[in-house]
Each structure stands twice: as structure tokens, then as C-alpha cells.
Design goal:
Recoverin, domain 1; 2 domains; two-stranded antiparallel ribbon; 12 helices; PBP_GOBP_sf
Length: 241
Amino acid sequence: MQKRSGILVAICLWLSVRKSLALLPNESDIIDKCILNYGGLTPETAERLGRFKDWSVDYEEIPCFTRCYLADMFDFYNNSTGFDKDAVVKVFGEPVYNACQKKLELPESELSSCQHAYEGFHCITNLENHPFTVIDNMANISQSAKTAMKECLQDVDQAKWKSFAAYGDYPVIEPIPCYTRCFLDKLHLFDQKTRLWKVGAMRQHLGVPAKGAVIRSCHLQRGKDRCATYYKQFTCHALAA
């Protein structure tokens, strides 16, 4: 009974890992293959895979797993030549490649190793959702807007940066208080004299509202304070159809 219970725990953990990692065809089979030499499916292995991003920057907890996984799974990595720049940029974006360049490039005449594969991919996966990387990859956003958004983030406690991703769901309450007001003021998109939004400039810098969108009631949105009002009104412009 105890053995069956242990197997059940392992299966539950592995299903959880697969749910978060196995997004592509054959990925589950490849992961199974790459952990076979390290005890196969066990509760410990499943837990380690589930927290891949938490592994040490330079120490791979499941030896050579990443090299095996990348070589069989993606075109941007080769067991001999390592990471292909153009392919990495295509999948993850140029900002991610530039940030991880030192770990991704191989010195001339050297072959890729387990350590190289791990350090390069570990860097990519930890940077791909970094707020600065997300901002750099935003389409229809001016360079001035990207700079303003980054500057405003630097004024915020980094512990709150993890809430940045929530903006994509347009929640009712702003994920990082006063962040929207900060970058909108830096871009001078609200006319303090007329109390009106500079819609043309907003569209130029941030790509919203869409042309022809009905926004006449957006200025009526109100929050508990000025920051909340900025967020509500900007969100209204962004979602207007």
C-alpha cells in the first residue's frame, strides 16, 4: 500500500509538471527520455523539474537534462554548435538574446557542453518574463514609452515587479499602485489645464485607443484617488472598441 501511495504521489507531481511544461507535441516523451538516466519518474525528479527556474545559476540539479531536452526539442540548439542566434531571437526576442549573450555564445573551436546548454537556457527562461524584457518586446509602443515604463518600474520596490504580468489581464485594481500614472505623466499624455487626454499622442506612444473606438465616456471613470483614476481611464481607452 505504501509503494502504491508513493507511485500515486509521483504521478500527481508529474502531471503537474507536464501541465506547466509540456506544451508542444512529443515534449512529454522527450522529458521522460532525458530523466531516464537519473532515476526516471520519482517525486524528487518531478519536484526538481517543476522548479527549474529556481535552480542555481551555474549548477544543474539533474545533470545534462537541459542539453538532452533542448537538442531533441528545439531547432535553436545543437549539441555541437550550441545556440543559434537567429533562432533564439525568433523564439524569445532580441532583448532576451542580448541579455544572455555571454552565456549563449561559444568561444571559437569549442563545442557545446551540458554546462553551456544549462546556463544559456536557464538565463533565457528567467529573463523571458522579466518586466524589462516584456516591455522591450511590446508591439506598437514608442521607444519613449518603453523608457518611461522602465524608469517608473525602477522607482518601485522590485518585490512588486512580479505583479507586472497581471497588467495584461486588465484587472479592476491596478497591480502596481500609481505605476500607470507615473509613465503617463512622463509622456505628458494628460493635459492638466483642459483635464483631457491627448488621445493622438496616446495612440502614437502606446498604440491605444484603436482608431474609431468609442471613448467618449472614458473621462467619467473615477477611482478612489488620482492614481486609480488614471488607471481606470487609461484602461478604458485601451479596451475601447
